[in-house]
Amino acid sequence: MSLFQGYQLGLNDKSPVILDIGEAYTKAGHSGAGGPQCIIPSVVRERSTGNTIRIRDCFCDTERLYDALVEHLYTIYFKYLLVNPKERRVVCVESIFSPTDVRETLARVLFNHYECPSLLFAPTHLMAMFSLGIHTGIVVDCGYREILSVPVVHGVPLVAQSQCLPVGAKALHSELRMLLGNSTVRCIDGIERPLQSLPNDTINEESIEDIKVRACFVPSRERAESHRQRNSDEETPRYAPSMKYPIDNRGVLEIPGEVRESLMELMFQLDDEQRSIATTIIDAVLQSPIDARKDLIGNIVIIGGSAMIPGFKHRLMIEIKYLLNNTYNGRLSGDLLRFHDSPSKENYTAWLGAAIFCGLEVLDLRSIQRSQYIKLGSVPDWCTVTQPQIEPILIKQSSTTRRLL
Length: 405
What we know:
The chain has helices at residues 3-12, 62-81, 100-113, 124-130, 169-179, 205-215, 221-228, 257-262, 265-268, 277-286, 293-297, 312-325, 349-357, 363-366, 370-376, and strands at residues 17-21, 25-30, 38-41, 43-45, 52-54, 90-94, 118-123, 137-142, 147-153, 156-157, 163-165, 184-187, 192-194, 243-247, 251-255, 300-303, 368-369, 394-396, 402-404. The strands form 5 sheets. Strands 3-2-1-6-7-17 form a 6-stranded mixed sheet, sandwiched between helices. Strands 8, 9, 10, 11 and 16 form a 5-stranded mixed sheet that branches. The protein has 405 residues and is of the alpha+beta class. α5 (169-179) packs across α6 (205-215) and α10 (277-286) packs across α12.
């Protein structure tokens, strides 16, 4: 069977649609696939003003968020997935810390506007572990605004023990723009000019992200310490070679080697509160039940786009071992430290776990049906103790008999 025939078979089977609406990018596709069918920016163009805005910027206004989600989902359904939303169940991957108003607005859009038959909100951290087949571990989500370390014990996220560091991709982009302020641009007329003397739109947000991905990397701890502790009288250290980045219709930007090496130090250096990405993981483990700490430190899952920078995981492991042996005085053994290799790229690991989860028969039992939503008028939260009564679902067992769940 060819790849195209197998893909058509999945479409004819009315496979559920998996949505992962992140702050920077949205991943969407069909269940059973090895990856999302599209990864697009989480931005929409407002009809009233014509401006392009992030969906995150609409969280404070539910009506504005409703209109933004309608436009965003219309693009996903009819431009990329090419399916009828009335015929497809939906699984939405979301953070356990997502505001309730956002869940309710998204459910209102899917059930009332697009009339999808059922909807399931799947926690991001559980789906990331589901893709690996483990039930206990720490999921470190390197998101757009923050780094979130959530311990999960036997499939239950420990919210009180979760740790957050407000250093995400957004902070990296701001730092990179500041570091590039002294760089030079060889314009198309052959004259070198400082980047600061050029218009502000010379380097937009997309170019900043592209430079971060293509040019920057995470150096070793020894190399970073040697650069940080050098005196001003010492000889200039040898950095990585500079890199030339072409700018559309403007010229060529020269990215110094110091910028390439020093950008990612923002995540690994201790801040004013003596916290870094490594301390969030250790603190999350130490605040968890003592009988689960061994399994937690031995099952670390890294997700998020920033984790795809070369050298990220190796440097993180070295930082954790260094802190365990020095700052934390051996309260945990560094020999137990283990990182899992994700079965996919780190930016859509949670999406892949949800796609695998959709292959189970329990999907219909965990989802809320449209008829149930119309009757209740709201979606139960993931931590609700008293779940509403779910309507019985008939599943075909054979051509003549049926089994009532």
